[in-house]
Amino acid sequence: MLNIKSVVTDIQKRLKEPKKLDEKNVTTFLDNMKTVLSNYLEVSRTKGRKQSLRMSSIGKPDRRVWMEVNGPKREEELPPDALMRFLYGSIIEELMLLLVRESGHHVTSEQKEVTVNGVKGHLDCMIDGEVVDIKSASNFGFKKFKNGFDNEDDFGYIGQLSGYVEAEQKQSGYFLAMNKATGDIALLEIDDLDIINAGKRIVSLRKTLNDNDKPEPCANPIAEGKSGNKQLARICRYCQFKFDCWPEVRMFKYSDGIKYLTTVEKEPKVEEIHA
């Protein structure tokens, strides 16, 4: 059996050396694709408040988890472009697993349910006996999977992977990621230098969730250029609770996208968007 550390080069080799597909691999891929399409095109994707603590939450900041569980109950209808991105990402992840199999590596435990301290989650898979989370990423996001996170884990990926690693009694886990824009592939090992103690984190989060007071904000606003204006940090811009945490925020449509300003010392010369 091959070692996971060669999976990227083995996938690249398989892509460059055409040969007959393994029918079992193709059947597995098509079955998984049918499930993905059904989940996105037959089931409502309305985004709402989480009702309980999940493995996918334990790596997030306390305030974000508190708001997901205790915050205002709200359903957010995802726009078509977001739904397309998520669907495309899921398709890429299934394609990655097909290529892993076709390159000779062993895939098991797809979507296996695991539990740590009563908190449930689902593994993406195990490759060659190692815990793996499959990711598709933008150019910006892919840099973390290529070069390491450097303590910047806005979406709590390392915490989530840590839970899976602990549940499977492993010492490390891996991210296998593909850049959606370039097709580049990277394997990143997360070992005991980065892995968190998932069990202790869950105990701490439960205490936080039982508190009536909100934890401190996930991040403070940052400077927007040299104007004296301040905008939401990246981790807040993508949060569905940004207007609850920062009710004074104003939205402005810049050429490179919407900016959420919490302090306006100099009025921007661009269109303001009113919710």
Please supply descriptive tags for the structure shown above.
275 residues; Lambda Exonuclease, Chain A; five-stranded antiparallel β-sheet; globular
Q: By helix and strand content, what is the structural category?
A: alpha+beta
What percentage of the residues does DSSP assign to strands (E)? Answer: 15-25%
Strand order of the largest sheet: 3-6-7-8-9
Q: How would the global form be characterised?
A: globular
How many separate structural domains? 2
- CATH topology (fold) name of the largest domain: Lambda Exonuclease, Chain A
Radius of gyration (CA) equals: 21 Å
The amount of helix comes to 25-40%
**Main β-sheet description:** 5 strands, mixed
Question: Any low-confidence stretches, pLDDT <50, length ≥5?
Answer: none
Mean pLDDT: 93
Give the tally of β-strands: 14
**CATH class value of the largest domain:** Alpha Beta
Distance between the termini: 56 Å
Q: Give the ordered list of helices and strands.
A: HHEHEHEEEEEHHEEHEEHHEEE
Number of distinct helices: 9
CATH architecture descriptor text of the largest domain? Alpha-Beta Complex
Describe this structure in words.
The mean pLDDT is 93. The protein folds into two domains: 4-207, Lambda Exonuclease, Chain A (Alpha-Beta Complex), CATH 3.90.320; 222-273, no CATH class. By secondary structure, it is α+β, with helices and mostly antiparallel strands. It has nine helices and 14 strands. It has a five-stranded mixed sheet with strand order 3-6-7-8-9. Strands 10-11-13-12-14 form a five-stranded antiparallel sheet, with no helix packed on it. Helix 2 packs antiparallel against helix 4 (80-102).
